[in-house]
Amino acid sequence: MAELTTPAEASAFLARSSVPWHQRFQLAPGVYTPGVNDTDLLLGLAGVPADLSGLTVLDIGTSNGGVAFEAERRGAARVLAVDVTPMEYCGFDETRELLGARAEFLQASVYELPELLDEQFDLVLLLGVLYHLRHPLLALDALRHVVGGELVIETAVCDADVGRHAVGRPLVRFYPGAELDGDPTNWFAPTLRALLDWCESSGFAPTVLAQWPPGRVLRRLLRAGGPRWWAAARRARGAARRCVVRAVPTGSRPGWAEKSWAEWDLVVESRQIAAERRTSSSSGASR
Question: Would you state the CATH architecture of domain 7-252?
Fold first, then answer.
């Protein structure tokens, strides 16, 4: 990536920009985008190294591209940013031009990635995406095909909402409306235990990197800021609302494969059965 643009250029860029800014990241020294989601904070919680030299990075749900551009700044050999909206919607294209970045963009859903990408990535980032998906297990199954090194998931969890008796149990809350943060695109929040079980079922070995609770404890952590926040979040236990999990592919087949029909195999089998029935009916009619 080229050197950071000047503060004056970055400020002028933000002044004329009309895209929705979801992320906060640096465009120039002292000039940050106005989003609420701090990408440096997330990458710190995720334990993403300051040096990504030679690695390939896949940023799913890239939005404004803050994580993708930071991965490139950290030396990643290749960065592919993915989102379901066109890159113009959140200003990925204009920001890339401003920063002189080389990060690529692919408009796709997470479910399509095994068909669209004939490769695996050293680092796959799924930050703030999982709870927006109507089919989270299908997404994790799809990701198993593109993760070569490790997958990092940052997501909402419902431990703080299910009561103490349910913490530690594999439960999932479904939000049919806008019950989660007033956002109708939020569908599911698992307990932390359920999230780990989901990962294991899809062929990953997961590790909890951080979890943080609601209310006064969260506000205290936020005020701490910087490394103190990251360290405190990693130590936090109990009624969590958010978490970060690292998941590494295992060498064996995903657990569900032994217990359930694969959806694509089932579709093919159903078509074959239907074709055989049509053939059988035609043969019977001809007789």
Answer: 3-Layer(aba) Sandwich (3.40)
